[in-house]
Specification:
Length: 114
Amino acid sequence: MGLVSPSRARGGGRRYSEADVERLREVQRLSSSEGVSLEGIRRILELTRANDDLAARLEELTGEVERLRRRVEARERVLAAGRSGAVEPVAPGRRPGRRPSAGELVLWRPGRQG
């Protein structure tokens, strides 16, 4: 019926994996206990497989986000002693800035820090 595709032995016999056997048990449960049609079972199996793939991808991307977040946090934790001797957070590769005094012109550039 195409719901399970077992591998083949050299002699042509079918070889069912544990996953195949579990899938067949689920097919039997859905058809006999739940009264689901074969097309409905096919769709349920497709959606279950897609859901498993998405869950694995989500786990992978969540790990990647955490790795990137740790890298960004590590970069943002640069501290330096300012002119007054106080500890100031600074961007990597920058020196502690001084505050503009009255009358100084300060240029603001959108999207740039520093």
